[in-house]
Amino acid sequence: MKKTALIFSLIACLGLGALGQNRPRDINQWLVVGVYTKLNKQFSLNLGQNYGFDYEPRKLKYVQTSGSIGYRLSSSLWLSAATQWTASPREEGFSHKWRFAAGISLRTRLKNWQLSNSLNVEQHTKKEKKYRLRLIYTFYLKPKSLVNLGDFKFMPFASTRLYYNIGGSPISQYNAEGKRVVKQSPDGLHRFRGTLGIYFRPTKSLKLTLYSMLQEEFNTPWDIQNHRRINVVNPRTGRVSRAFSNKLVLGISIKYYLPTLLGERKKRLARQASSQKPENYFQSIIKP
Prior knowledge:
The protein contains 4 helices and 16 strands. By secondary structure, the chain is mainly beta. The chain has one domain. Strand 6 (about 115-125) and strand 7 (about 135-145) form a beta hairpin. The longest helix is centred in the first third of the chain and has 18 residues, at about 1-20. It is elongated, with a radius of gyration of 25 Å. About 10% of the residues are buried.
């Protein structure tokens, strides 16, 4: 199992490295701090704060505050609802925008691997100009058990994510001769993300994750044929509308796991019940 996981991680690292060689990209750093707890057997709560930094020059790019609730339909099927608030520094202060999401996730096992397929729908407010709605498909893969390197135990993982954009501000589209044919929102499949990482637990309630994420934006043949492209060059001015956002992210995530709230309540009630001494016969008969 250890050999399989290490080979998988090496191949995935080489694959992502090869994919990112040909196109210029920004380098960002993410620091995520979060808290997770189970409310009861079906519901869970996840809260997080994400700080995004540009690598060169080193500066804060945005702060994201998010919260989500998960509902367990069965051992393999989950529903979720989430919201996220983003604040980005500007010369005149901070700009703010919101997004809301709902999703479904199917978790399965294949021999020595654990797999997850999920589909999320994101609704964005008007301050987001690139899109109004996004469909996001995520595939997640990890080994069934931890990898042991001496005394160090960790879990490698990999994920891929595809983004389909709907709506947003319209963009002028041009044909091969440089003539504008239409101005419309660039609906379509325009973004891929691939992530590799490991996580481990220094303590039972603390989870540390180290990962790298590669983001690649593109136009599909359907986008080109239907004039739904991004990264459109104005043939007269040379100006690029909705330029590709290609980047490499190096991230650290710190998550604290709180005890199950319902379980703690049951334990507290049990302790209270056990601490109450039963009345003896004489105490009971002298009560008024």
